Structures are given as C-alpha cells and as structure tokens.
From TrEMBL:
SUPFAM superfamilies: (Trans)glycosidases, Galactose-binding domain-like. This is Glucosylceramidase. Belongs to the glycosyl hydrolase 30 family. PANTHER family: GLUCOSYLCERAMIDASE (PTHR11069), LYSOSOMAL ACID GLUCOSYLCERAMIDASE (PTHR11069:SF23). The lineage of its organism: Bacteria, Bacillati, Actinomycetota, Actinomycetes, Micromonosporales. It comes from Winogradskya humida. The keyword Signal applies. Keywords: Glycosidase, Hydrolase, Signal. Residues 485-635 form the F5/8 type C domain.
Amino acid sequence: MFHLLQEAVVRILLAAVLAFSPLPGFHPSSARADVRVWVTTPDRAEELHERAPLAFGKGTSDLTTITIDPSVSYQSMDGFGASLTDSAAAVLYRLDPAKRDAALRSLFDSRQGIGVSFLRQPVGSSDFTATATHYSYDDVPAGQTDYALRHFSIAHDEAQILPLLRRARQLNPQLTVMGTPWSPPAWMKTSGSLIGGHLKDDPAVYDAYARYLVKYVQAYARAGVPIDYLTVQNEPQNRHDGGYPGTALPVPQEAKVISALGPLLRKASPRTKILGYDHNWTTHPGDVATTPAGEDPETDYPYRLLASPAGKWLAGTAYHCYSGDPSAQTALHQAFPAKGIWFTECSGSHGPDDTPADIFRGTLTWHARTLAIGTTRNWAKSVVNWNIALDSTGGPHLGGCDTCTGLLTLQPDGTVTRDAEYYTIGHLSKFVKPGAVRIASTSFGTTGWNGQLMDVAFRNPDGSTALIVHNENDAPRSFTVAVGARSFEYSLPGGALATFTWPRGAFPVPHQVTTEPTATASSPGAQDAVDADAATRWSSQAPQAPGQYLQADLGTPTTYAKIAIDSGDNLGDYARAFTLTASNDGIHWRTLATGTGTGQLTTVTVGTTRSRYLRVTSTGSSSSWWSIADLRLYR
C-alpha cells in the first residue's frame, strides 16, 4: 500500500512539473519542427485537433520512454473503417446531395476527412437494414429452389449502397472492400428462412452457395466495386434468433463451403481472398449455451478451420470484439504464422441512461486501447467498426442491436455529428496508409486498463512514421518518444488519444538483438522482464536494496554493445544504483559497467561484448520497488 501511495504522489508531481518543461540535459533541435501531432480528448475539447508541431532533440530524459525501433517489423496493414450497411446507406440518403457528399468526404477523403480505407459489406441483409423484410440476392417463394441461380440479382444494392461505394472509391482509390453474408438464401437452409437454421448438408447446396458468392463478387466488380476479401458466414457460432439473418455453420460445413468456393473464386476473381471464421476472439458463453445437444461447441473454431483441408484456401482469419480480448489473435498467429489476421467488427454501444458525454468518453477510451492499439499490436491487418452511419435512434434496424452507434449520427434537425468511433478510426486511417508496416515500439498499457501509456507505431510506404498513443490514466501523463539517439517529450491529458507523425529521417537506429532469453531473479516473475512486452514487468516486490538482481540467459553466446534497462511506466521504480555483469558459463562473471539510474529508461554502452548470461544487480537503496519491464540488447 505504501508503494502504491508513493507511486501516486510521484505521478502527480511529475505530471505537474514535467508536462510543460524539458528535463535538464534534453535539448530540442533548433532545426525545423518535423513532428506533427493530433489529439482527441474524452471531454471533446479536442477532436482530431492538430496541435503545434515539435522537433526531435538530443539528450536523455527521465520520463517513461516509448522507444521506436524501425528495424523490427510485424504485419502489413490493409486499412481501417466500418460497414456501409443498408441502414447506413438509407441514413445518408436522407441528406440532400451536397450534405451527403460532405459526409462522404468527411469519411473517405484523407485531407478533408479521415481517409477511411476499409469497408466490410454485408452480402444481402443484416440486422441493420432499412427494408421492411430481410433479403438475399436469390429469394424465391417458400418451397421453391433455384440451383441454377436464375433469380440472382443485386438490384437492391444498386439503389443506394453501390452508388455510395463507388463514390467512396473515388474519394479513396486505395479503399479495400470485404464481403460477408449474414445468411445464404433461405432455400439453401434447414430453416427455410434467412433467420436461424443450418446450411443444408448437401453437396449440391455447397456448390450452389459457392457459385452464389462468386456471382456476388462478379456482379459487384461489374458495378465498379471489386471485392478484395470474402468470408462465407458472419458469426457462424451465433445461434440466437435475434430477428435478423444468421446461420449456424459448424467447422465441417464452413470447410466444405470454402473448399467448393476456393477453386471457383481463384478462376473467377483471383484478387479476392477468403477469410475464415469472422467471429469473436473467444466463443461467447451464449453461443456455447445454445449449442444443440450432442453437437461440439467448437471453442477452438479458427484453429480447426485453418488445420482442415480448407485451410489452403484461406488467407487468414477474421475476428470480432464481443467476447474475449485481442490476445487471442496473437495466440492464433503463433499457431499459424503464415496466415493473416483481420479485425472486422465491433460496434459502439451504450446503456439506456448514459449521457452523450458518457457515451463519448467510454467509447473513445475503450476503443482506443482495445481496438485502435490492442488489435494492431496483436497482428490485425485491419480495424473495422460496425455501422459507418446511423440515425439518432441507433437505426434503422430490423432486429438485433438497438443501442449501437456509428461513426456518424444523423440528428433529428438534419445535422450530422461525429461519434467517438469516427475519431478512434480516424487516428489510424488518416495517418496509417494501406501497405504500412507495424514496427516495434514499447507500450505499457493493456486492453484490460492499467492506467498507463499504450501505443502502436507504423512505417508508411513513403517511409514516414505514424505513432498512436493513448493515455489510459485519468490524469495527465508526460512521456518521451525515442528513435535511436533522437527524442522528444510530450504530455497528454487524461484519457486522450494522439497520433504523432514524422517524415522519413536519417536517424541512426541501433540494431536490436533478437533473442528468446529465459530469466531468473531474486523475486518471482523474472520472465516478464525478457518477454519483449513492456506491459509486463519483473519487480523486486520490496524496497530496493543491494543484492537484488535479474539474470538473463540468452540461450547462446550473443554479441551486443548496448543494454537498455527499461523500468516501464511504474514511475520511480528504476534502479538507484546497479552493476552489469556478464558470463559465458553462469559461474564466472566479469563486470561490464556500474552506474546510477535517474529515470525510467537507462541505456548503458558497454562496447562490443559477447556473452551468454547477463546480470543486473542492485547496489543502491530506495523506498521504491525496482522494476524491469523490458531488457533489450543492441549491437
């Protein structure tokens, strides 16, 4: 308790003193200000507001340091956006042409708006439809079938949806479009309805459904909207009758659809890739509870699907946000590293008594840490919300959610307002371009909320960098951003989301040594210091005292020249004094350096050194605990 109280006091003092003044030894560059910054705050005082630019400088900082390492890269990005549902189209068509085009520009134009770059489009009807009845692209009277697909038509979409999609592609030629059906045509299903039931387990039905999806892709391409990705069923484990289209599609059935679709799609539209699953990070408890007796709930659905013979036709897996957390994406990536991961649906929502201010604050902060940063730090190639626009009643909709929110809201007086999702998506889509690659950055916050700083960084195709930072804390937080030997300091209000950008630069960046070390220490939790995740930490769990240590086994003799001892975002937990020693056998040790810590990140230059073992030992005392969130080696 003393430690927590002390930490709180340190946070308040640092926020007050450091938010507005650089530390001694830190010298902003006198060159032009290369860093631009945009901020959105939970109180709406700033909404993607561009603040004064700043410059990288030389020197050290005692603040929590977000270290950017462009030499380490992860997934490439396809884009960020939402779904232009039938409901969203109907809402936009309530506007006169000039206002409608202004709304579209605010969404898809990267200069006048946020440059939405990814749309996930329902194939037929979903719960968010403005029609009186649900529809597919091949509806026939009850009791009839259409295996030849003679009645196939996308005429419904030609009225409003496709004109808006074509305009969106004009405004953003790099727009990626994904198609997802909520249900096959009713005549293909055991229920005889778009609502509920299974796909009939019949080879002729699998073939017909595969051809139906190919005809959709071809028809949309002819209409000027090529389809880049396709899934075969939205939420295949969702068996709830919510009054809207849905189909239970167990793994064996989805695999049969994909196996029939893959060869046809490769021939008809090679650009269109198939994604599997398209459901939650974990199987929702409600989906488990509604599993029919004797049927497997398939809680490892995406693993089974990727491991099945249909896996060869899949580019990867799509995920939703309504159960579990984004770490499920990393677990799947580790099991199937050659397959991509896309995050494709999450709706903002609210309680019946929430005020507009409550809705904005809660949505901004949850979506910032969980979607904008949480999914992308866990291998997602896209971040996609649900409806791109709704009216003030959360509709129109036919069944399903009545508390959902969109990126835009049409108000009763005819004005269009921007919701929190507009800004959480905008902090990505406006600055992170299709083809960008996520690069390494130290992040200290978690999707479960721990009140610390959370971030993700990208290198754009033109070489520029975009860094998105979220202050999870309700209090202002000051921090440093470092790229090699250059850095800048900044302060964000409580709960704020920010994007920093800077052009391709000539900053020399040390090359990080990639290892998979194991660790031991004088207290439990040593592995958290060497897991390449600054949101976890090893701690002394007691006031600092001489003799406390952390020892890393690098696995094999490894060459390095610099050592970064990062104490993370637990302010004050840095070593007051320390000794660095190295060994090749874990028995005989030689001293590399001794020193004193003054802040959260201590970087020690030891010259070219080769060893298997590395030990950091405390030689000082403090009432603060000692933490190491990340131990990094550089050549």
